[in-house]
Structures are given as C-alpha cells and as structure tokens.
Specification:
Blueprint lengths: L5 E7 L2 E7 L10 H8 L10 E6 L8 E7 L4 E2 L3 H13 L6 E6 L2 E8 L2 E5 L4 E11 L2 E9 L3 E6 L8 H9 L10 E7 L4 E8 L4 E3 L3 H13 L7 E4 L5 E6 L3 E6 L1 E7 L8
Parallel strand pairs: 2-3, 4-6, 11-12, 13-15
Antiparallel strand pairs: 1-2, 1-18, 3-4, 4-5, 6-7, 7-8, 8-17, 9-10, 10-11, 12-13, 13-14, 15-16, 16-17
The structure holds the ligand N[C@@H](CCC[C@H](N)C(=O)O)C(=O)O.
C-alpha cells in the first residue's frame, strides 16, 4: 500500500504533522483515516499529531482544499498549527502564492507566509459560553467554551504546572455537555494582561500536545471576554514557543513553522 509515497514532516510550536500533496488523488477518501492511524503512531511508524492531505479546491480562487486527520484517524474540521504548516507547504510545493486561502470543513482559511513565519485568519468564533457550571468527576467546575474551528473547553487555573491535564482533560473531553462531538480541553494560567500560558488535551490525539493553535485562540478569546487580557495576546505553549493571537475582524494565529524532512514511505511503515 502506497510504496514511495512522498510526504513532508513539519511542526508548528511543537504540534507535528505529515503533509502530502494529494492533488493526484492517489490516496482515496476512504484510505485516509487508516493511513493517518498507521503513520502517526509514535515509535512504530513516522509519528505525528496529525496527517494533512492537500487536494484540488472546489472553488479555484482558493489554493487547495485540505483534509485533516488526527492521529487516531478521526477527521477534524480545522487545525490552527496544521493550517500554518499547510500554507507554508503549499507555497514551497508551488501550489500557492504567499498570500493564499484554502478550504477546510470549518470554512475558508486565509494565510500569509513569510519564510518560516505564518499567520492564519481563523473562521469566526462561535458557540461562546462563559461560566458553565459542570459536575466533573463528582466535583463542581467552572468551564468556558468556544468553537474556533474545532470545539474548545477552557479551564482557568492558578498553577499550570500542577494542572490535572491527563485526568480532567479526558473527563471534560467526553463530558455529556460536549457530546456527541466531544471537545479539546485547554488549561490556562493568566501571566499578565498580555500573556497567558496554555496546556491542551487534544481530541483525536487523546493526550496532551506541545501546542494547539485553535486552542491558543480559544484561550485568548475567553481570557479577553473575562476581562483578564487584552489583544494581541502572547501564548506560552507547552513546547516553550510563543504564539501570538491578534483580534481584527476575526482571530489571527501567528508563529513559526519548521520543516523537518521529506520522506518516501516504505510499505512496512503501514504494517500492524
Ligand atoms: N492541534 C490543532 C487542532 C487539531 C484538531 C483537534 N485535535 C480536534 O480534533 O478538534 C490546532 O493547532 O488547532
């Protein structure tokens, strides 16, 4: 299956992805989830948080349409850090100019690529709910929510190092309030009026990642709505990199991307 398939490994603030130019549609729609599950396995295969396929756009005014798959093979509507990597990949593959737009299941994403630095305009935030009182693992908890392309719950904490990301994360990810889609879960410490630190438990990776772009945007928006910060907001990610969230007509996510390598897939990478 897929010998000699060419892919590029990239990361943006520690969120890592495999990117494939699928304009030829060599990978069929039904094959993509399996490919994501197999290739994203850490240690056993290439390893990544997600797989991104770039395909011909429905509307030719956009550079491409993407399909985004989490490491567990589930398809997500959007991914902020993945979007930044995809925009740069498209420019470097000759599929797009540095100011571009592309189609996602969440809507149209606009991007500006300046070398390794990429800024994307996210889809307008929706379903904002502040101060939800939830019962989580038998205890009351205040949780905020917004969809910045994908769903995000946000919990403010005093000490991010001590935040129970790996117990409260899954409990909220599967909480009935967010059913059936589930949610990503962000833990946020306010550092100043311009800066927050965020740790994210990601849906579809089913664990903490080093950063999450739409989660960073959701966290900044909620912190601003609660009167704790002012835009632009700097986000200190788990991986240590600083992302910037701007608010103009929508939320913008800006930061560095890294191209790691181009690989040619060996069929054994896909074995059970
Ligand atoms: N890491 C991403 C979000 C990817 C999708 C997410 N795991 C989901 O299923 O909702 C980002 O940078 O935004």
């Amino acid at each position: 299956m897929f010998p000699e398939l060419s892919f590029v490994k990239m990361q943006a603030s520690g969120n890592d992805f495999l990117l494939i130019n699928n304009f030829s549609r060599r990978i069929l729609p039904e094959e993509a989830p399996v490919l994501a599950r197999r290739l994203c396995r850490r240690r056993l295969s290439v390893g990544a948080d997600g797989l991104i396929l770039l395909e011909p756009p429905e509307d030719p005014t956009h550079a491409f349409r993407w399909r985004f798959f989490n490491a567990d093979g589930s398809e997500a509507e959007m991914c902020g850090n993945g979007g930044r990597c995809a925009a740069r990949f498209a420019v470097e593959e000759g599929l797009a100019r540095p100011v571009l737009s592309f189609e996602t299941r969440a809507g149209i994403i606009r991007a500006r690529v300046q070398g390794s630095r990429v800024k994307v305009a996210l889809t307008p935030p929706k379903d904002l709910s502040l101060g939800l009182k939830l019962l989580v693992e038998g205890k009351p908890l205040e949780v905020h929510f917004v969809n910045t392309g994908v769903p995000h719950a946000v919990v403010l904490v005093e000490d991010l190092e001590a935040a129970p990301v790996n117990s409260l994360g899954p409990a909220l990810r599967y909480h009935e309030r967010f059913s059936p889609a589930g949610t990503n879960v962000n833990f946020v410490e306010i550092l100043s009026e311009e800066e927050i630190a965020v740790r994210t438990y990601e849906r579809g990776v089913e664990g903490e990642t080093l950063a999450c772009g739409t989660g960073a945007a959701a966290s900044a928006l909620i912190a601003a709505e609660l009167g704790k910060v002012r835009f632009p907001v700097r986000i200190r990610t788990r991986g240590g990199e600083i992302l910037t969230i701007h608010r103009e007509e929508t939320l913008f996510l800006e930061g560095e991307t890294r191209r790691i390598y181009r690989g040619l897939l060996h069929p054994e990478a896909l074995l059970d």
